[in-house]
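Hey, quick one: can you model this chain's 3D structure?
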Amino acid sequence: MTPHLPELPFELGPFGPEGGWTYEGGVLTGRAGARQDRFVPPGGAGLDPASDAPRLLGAAPRGDFQLIARVRVGFAAAFDAGVLYLHVGEREWAKLCLELSPDHPTVCTVVTRGRSDDVNSFTVDADTCWLRLSRTGDAFAFHASADGEKWTFVRVFALGDPEHAADASVGFLVQSPTGEGCEASFDRIEFRTTGLGDLRDGS
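Sure thing. Here's the predicted structure for all 203 residues.
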């Protein structure tokens, strides 16, 4: 049964492997199985380009928006992560992750345009972090926060042509590329139909 999240103005559906998604008391929980990931190696080697991970996604309304959630990850192996996920096309998607990379919780991002890039931004001192995915105009942005109040700019980027980007799907992903599985939970979920005026002022 696909969970309904009252915080979101759109319905979610499952994609990829079974994630056992549940929603209770304002907390969304999902689980990746062993060695499940969504990543296309930039060098054409390593993980299978067809690899996948459990995703729970919905079509975001057109226009500016912010998707916010606090993620908690049950880290057990390198690169376990809870993720805010953006999907524009079959080979055009992006991830904002709280990831064990490889032995410290780290805010990481991946943007895939045919092949994936991979960027570590900064480490955190806990298994919990606030994440924010936003769209302003034709640009997407990633931010992270320790408290959900002061936000650190992580990345701004375009993805796909403007028409496809306007029909983006957004949601949640859990991965365990090297491990036997990983559980992540998302709470304090919020969706705002406004963009961001200044990406770097901490708001």
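One thing worth noting: The mean pLDDT is 94.
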